[in-house]
């Protein structure tokens, strides 16, 4: 029996984020028809990219700019679109936006929800996700007329499957807020860099960076390849960088393809936040540091000497 799979797309400046394509690849299982839900973008601009990965229907959910910023109205609009197109499984990214939107949809639709999934078996309705700070992997079976899954960015390698897609408009401009959430104004973070949760490559600094000024070296190097910049708890607690950059058990949980740790000891708590990285490279003066035994490659050297040279090479 053919399953209608819904995919909530995340966009950046009107373009499809690269992390969506792995999620679409996962959804493209046997006997599935893929519906991409787009909000606040020109669907004609994203059509070619989505067709390359096997999307069959692009649903343009229409809302006014004011209502697009309201998470409650966005969730209501998507639930209506999901019901209209008989969606039985809904995918979204486990990003900051996804963690705000997907639980709202699941609660409103009385649907089971599993976040941070690295795999989903659509035949058995079983999701694989990490538990207990990454110490074990759980396989969670869910049942219901609608199943909601948050997919961990970079968990699945994107694979193309060219086809053709139709565009369907779904006007929800009549929706109003319930009054509990009212957005007065919104402003983009001018200092925002690459999202750590979505970054394919992350440069992380620890105690070995010595001060906040030296983190500028890390940022300059990372910018050469558009990598994310992260930090250990020591660096955050010392006031060198903001909390938003912390990776670890009490910080962000990241899943990059490459994680490069500069002057970072690699405590158990930090490792819990980045242990699913595809490749770990460490730079540390102490060859007995914990990060060395948890890395694929390491360099026994001073991070502050390596960074300028790496920047030149990149």
Q: How many separate helices?
A: 10
Give the strand order, joined by hyphens, for the main sheet: 9-8-7-10-6-1-4-5-11
The helix-and-strand class reads alpha/beta
Specify the CATH architecture of the largest domain: 3-Layer(aba) Sandwich
Q: Helix share of residues?
A: 25-40%
The arrangement of helices and strands along the chain is EEEHEHEHHEHEEEEEEHEHEHEHEH
On the 0-100 scale, what is the average pLDDT?
Answer: 92
Question: The CATH topology of the largest domain is what?
Answer: Rossmann fold
Largest sheet: 9 strands, mixed
Query: What is the count of structural domains?
Result: 2
Low-confidence stretches: none
Shape annotation: elongated
What distance lies between the first and last C-alpha atoms, to the nearest angstrom? 50 Å
Number of strands: 16
Strand content: 25-35%
Q: CATH first level of the largest domain: which class?
A: Alpha Beta
Summarize the structure in words.
The chain has ten helices and 16 strands. Helix 4 crosses helix 5 and helix 6 packs parallel to helix 10. The chain has 314 residues and is α/β, with parallel strands linked by helices. The radius of gyration is 21 Å and the shape is elongated. 27% of the residues lie in helices and 27% in strands. The N and C termini lie far apart (50 Å). It folds into two domains: 169 residues, Rossmann fold (3-Layer(aba) Sandwich), CATH 3.40.50.620; 113 residues, Rossmann fold. It has a nine-stranded mixed beta sheet with strand order 9-8-7-10-6-1-4-5-11, with helices on both faces. Strands 13-12-14-15-16 form a five-stranded parallel beta sheet.
């Amino acid at each position: 029996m053919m399953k209608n799979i819904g995919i909530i797309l995340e966009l950046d400046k009107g373009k499809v984020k690269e992390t969506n394509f792995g999620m679409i690849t996962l959804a493209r299982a046997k006997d599935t028809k893929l519906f991409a839900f787009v909000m606040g973008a020109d669907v004609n601009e994203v059509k070619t990219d989505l067709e390359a990965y096997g999307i069959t229907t692009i649903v343009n959910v229409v809302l006014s700019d004011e209502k697009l910023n309201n998470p409650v109205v966005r969730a209501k609009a998507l639930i209506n679109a999901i019901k209209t197109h008989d969606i039985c499984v809904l995918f979204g990214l486990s990003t900051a936006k996804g963690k705000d939107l997907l639980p709202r949809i699941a609660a409103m639709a009385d649907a089971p929800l599993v976040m941070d999934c690295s795999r989903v078996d659509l035949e058995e309705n079983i999701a694989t996700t990490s538990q207990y700070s990454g110490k074990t992997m759980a396989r969670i079976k869910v049942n219901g007329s609608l199943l909601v899954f948050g997919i961990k960015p970079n968990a699945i390698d994107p694979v193309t499957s060219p086809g053709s897609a139709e565009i369907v408009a779904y006007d929800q401009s009549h929706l109003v807020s319930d009054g509990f959430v009212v957005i007065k104004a919104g402003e983009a973070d001018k200092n925002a860099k690459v999202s750590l949760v979505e970054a394919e490559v992350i440069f992380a600094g620890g105690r070995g960076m010595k001060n906040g000024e030296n983190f500028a070296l890390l940022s300059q190097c990372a910018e050469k390849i558009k990598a994310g910049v992260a930090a250990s708890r020591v660096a955050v607690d010392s006031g060198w960088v903001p909390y938003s950059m912390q990776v670890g058990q009490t910080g962000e949980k990241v899943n990059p393809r490459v994680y490069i740790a500069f002057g970072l000891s690699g405590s158990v708590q930090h490792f819990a936040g980045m242990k699913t990285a595809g490749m770990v490279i460490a730079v540390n003066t102490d060859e007995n540091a914990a990060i060395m035994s948890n890395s694929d490659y390491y360099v026994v050297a001073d991070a502050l000497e390596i960074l300028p040279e790496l920047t030149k090479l990149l």
